[in-house]
Design brief:
By secondary structure, the protein is of the alpha/beta class. The protein has one domain: TIM Barrel (Alpha-Beta Barrel), CATH 3.20.20.70. It is about 40% helix and about 15% strand. The protein has 12 helices and 10 strands. An 8-stranded parallel β-barrel has the order 1-2-3-6-7-8-9-10, surrounded by 6 helices. α4 links the parallel β2 and β3. α9 runs antiparallel to α12 and α11 packs antiparallel against α12. The longest helix is centred in the C-terminal third of the chain and has 20 residues. The structure holds ribulose-5-phosphate.
Length: about 290
């Protein structure tokens, strides 16, 4: 594998344990100001230090992430449809590889919509993106987006993941499902899973644990982290599974412990000098003293 490509992949998938914790904050590209991501900077800043990479669009990268902070970027380069538009699957590549290089992206991400009206367009675009990105040693992450009327079962997801890998995607992102091992088995490149809609914290931790146990390389999680009332404890708990050895129970205990610590720290009053304390006279030099 080309050195640059290998080096960039190692920014996304940690070579020490072969695991990845990607924080997804790209939702606005078709959902607009998603709940709790209305102000991306405010959402991203407190939690970004606990992930390995950030998945976002160039607009959010430029406006809401400090360029001096050394975080690997997975740049979403597909778009062109919205949640209220005619068809979500009608996506094109909307950000150039040249721009991705300017933004120092470690990987590019785009969606393919297998089985949808625009299946052909999105799969061809994936092949083209891989051709171009590989010229510069940039890996491509294919997102197997699932349309409204499609199931998220192992048969469908295996098909979508395998097609993405066959076009040359270096990493595939999909959903966790029953018999997920089958999806992993038939996909020759690493698979990471999306978190999906907000779940109770313990369920989201169970999703993470089961996906890793069944062969996922990691997670690209968004809403289940930043829509939590406690995003920092939540990302730390997710991390303790992805990069650690925690069980669901242990990760959930850690989550609760961190929530309590945060609560206690907030309730402690910060030290303030007592301005009204007149009993102590300020030190004054005795001018008469010889
Ligand atoms: C949308 C995406 C999102 O990044 C993905 O769904 C991950 O976020 P979440 O965990 O909130 O599902 O690729 O197409």
């Amino acid at each position: 594998m080309d050195w640059g490509l290998k080096n960039r992949i190692s920014k996304i998938i940690n070579p020490l344990d072969n695991r990845a914790l990607m924080l997804a904050v790209d939702h606005g590209y078709f959902l607009g100001p998603t709940e709790k991501l209305e102000n991306p900077q405010k959402t991203i800043k407190p939690i970004m230090r606990y992930c390995d990479s950030l998945m976002l669009t160039r607009g959010v990268q430029r406006t809401s992430v400090d360029a001096a902070y050394p975080i690997p970027i997975v740049l979403r380069v597909s778009g062109g449809s919205s949640i209220i538009g005619e068809d979500l699957s009608n996506e094109q590549i909307i950000t150039s590889v040249k721009e991705a290089i300017r933004l120092n992206a470690s990987a590019l991400a785009m969606s393919i919509f297998v089985g949808s009206k625009y299946e052909h367009q999105t799969i061809v675009n994936l092949g083209r993106l891989v051709n171009e990105a590989e010229e510069y040693g940039i890996p491509v992450l294919a997102v197997t987006a699932v349309g409204k009327d499609m199931g998220k079962d192992a048969r469908y997801l295996s098909l979508a993941c395998r097609i993405a890998a066959e076009q040359g995607a270096h990493i595939v992102k999909t959903y966790y499902c029953e018999n997920f091992e089958k999806v992993v088995e038939s996909c020759p490149v690493p698979i990471i899973i999306a978190g999906g809609k907000k779940l109770p914290e313990k369920d989201a931790l169970a999703l993470t644990y089961n996906a890793i146990k069944d062969g996922a390389t990691g997670v690209d999680m968004g809403r289940n982290i930043w829509q939590s009332d406690n995003p920092v404890p939540m990302i730390k708990a997710v991390r303790s599974i992805v990069h650690g050895t925690n069980s669901v129970e242990q990760a959930y205990t850690l989550y609760n412990k961190l929530c309590n610590e945060t609560k206690n720290n907030k309730s402690k009053k910060p030290f303030q000098p007592n301005k009204n304390n007149k009993s102590k006279k300020p030190f004054q030099q005795n001018k008469n003293k010889k």
